[in-house]
Amino acid sequence: MNLAAVYALLYSALLGTAPNVVLLSVDTLRADFLGCYGCPYPTSPHVDRLAAESLVFDDAVCEVPLTAPSMSSMLASRYPRMIGMTRNGLRLPAGIQTVAQEFQNAGYFTFCVQSNWTLKTKLSHIDRGFDVYDDHFHQKRWGILKGERSADEVTRIALECLRDRPPEKPFFAWIHYSDPHAPYEFHKQFAPANKPRLFMKRTETVRRKYASEVAFTDAQIGLLLDVLLSDREGTEAASPDKSGESGESDGSDGSDGSDGSGGSDGSGGSDGSDGSGRGYPLRERGDPAGRRRDNLVILFVADHGESLYEHDYLGHGRRIYHHEMRIPFMVYAPGIAPGRTGVPVRGVDVGSTLLGLAGLQPLPGMLGVNVIADPPPAGRVRVVETYGGAVPKLPGARKRMAAAPPQFQGVIADGWKLICDGASPELYYLPEDPGELDNRATAETRRVSGMKALIERWDRETRRGASEEAALTEDDLRALEALGYVE
Ligand SMILES: [Zn+2]
């Protein structure tokens, strides 16, 4: 029996009963726009409160910076290329099992509240294993079809699902918010800066809009968390002492503040680990000792980040710099001490960790690790890639593109990141250069060859699965167009 299996047994014995498990994901959410990851704006008081009670991972990356590829890699715990989901508009093949199916098989009630068009059932087939997969949104704004559902509606439906769930079963919920995805809508009640817009540079205006989308989403997540965490049930678990692994990062990737958009009042710059005086209502009201009474697991994550004009690019999907690849990743669970850790984690770990936290075994073929029971070593090699963000209009062209090689590949190991771009590779040392501005490829030719070899090896070992193309209607194309995906 391996360590993870022993852990799973011990963990389920500790819990006594199966925990409720929530995968809480936000589309296009850069880690560094959350207070708990060093954002200077007060964007995320509610996620920060969750972070203060969670184990926060400072070094997490997605597999491919696109919604359907990334989320399917998390739920199937396999690399997007292996399941043929390298782009949006490609479906999860029938033979691939997901964690939702495993939860369902284990007697869980499973539900998902969806908000991104690319994750609709007919486009992604990612609904498998869910008793309820609510992707019924079809909104028009100013005559344009919206590709996303807004956060207030996501929270409302999620709360309805929680209220109406069968009480005799534990539940697995995947709740996905999409507001930070383009097009950015400005929420003036969540304005991060007071400077008049007239005096703002283009980058400032975009960052301000994006930050207000994050803050709007956070407020809605707060309403959901209030219910989830006031509904705490089950046995008393360990006290949240502050003995988690100490932070290897100061929570900042250094990419903020360079555009002078400031305006912070300083209240959002938490490191996410103090937790003082910021407990949830139940803890304040009914449990002043701060002891954990819940039987609830929450894994908070984003599917990818967003480039906000860094490297002269706005969006995601077409590059693999860290603004797009780095994601927030935190685990709130009974017996898990809050804190921070710098162990290197990745998208495929989400599925294995969710199952492990419920005392369930990983499914055959799953490649991720349970990051709690089996933390990856500091030298873990992580290959990431992207196949381009656009979905072509014509079915024939879509088929050809599904089989095309990656546009970019990169590898991250021991703090170094190599991005392969044909004849001109880029090499960065992330601990000193998180914004990826100082390309050291010319000075470090041996390191470049060594890291290229790591990618080649991964390529050999990680075979590509066949892609299954979704048939797109006019509405699908218009919604994808609104999200910036159609070419
Ligand atoms: Zn996305």
Short description:
The chain has 487 residues and is of the alpha/beta class. 28% of the residues lie in helices and 15% in strands. The strands form 6 sheets. An 8-stranded mixed β-sheet has the order 6-5-9-1-10-13-2-14, with helices on both faces. The protein has a 4-stranded antiparallel β-sheet with strand order 16-17-18-19, covered by helices on one side. It has a two-stranded parallel ribbon with strand order 3-15.
Task: Describe the structure in your own words.
This protein is an alpha/beta fold. The protein has 2 domains: 3-380, Alkaline Phosphatase, subunit A (3-Layer(aba) Sandwich); 395-482, 2-Layer Sandwich (Arylsulfatase, C-terminal domain). It contains 13 helices and 20 strands. It has helices at 3-15, 45-52, 67-76, 99-105, 121-124, 151-164, 202-230, 281-286, 322-325, 349-357, 395-402, 445-461, 474-482; strands at residues 20-26, 55-57, 60-61, 90-91, 109-113, 132-134, 140-141, 144-145, 171-177, 296-302, 307-308, 314-315, 329-332, 339-341, 345-346, 382-386, 408-413, 416-420, 426-429, 468-469. The strands form 6 sheets. Strands 6-5-9-1-10-13-2-14 form an 8-stranded mixed β-sheet, with helices on both faces. A 4-stranded antiparallel β-sheet has the order 16-17-18-19, covered by helices on one side. Strand 18 and strand 19 (426-429) form a beta hairpin. The model is unreliable at 233-292 (pLDDT under 50). Zinc ion is lined by residues 27-28, 67, 181, 303-304.
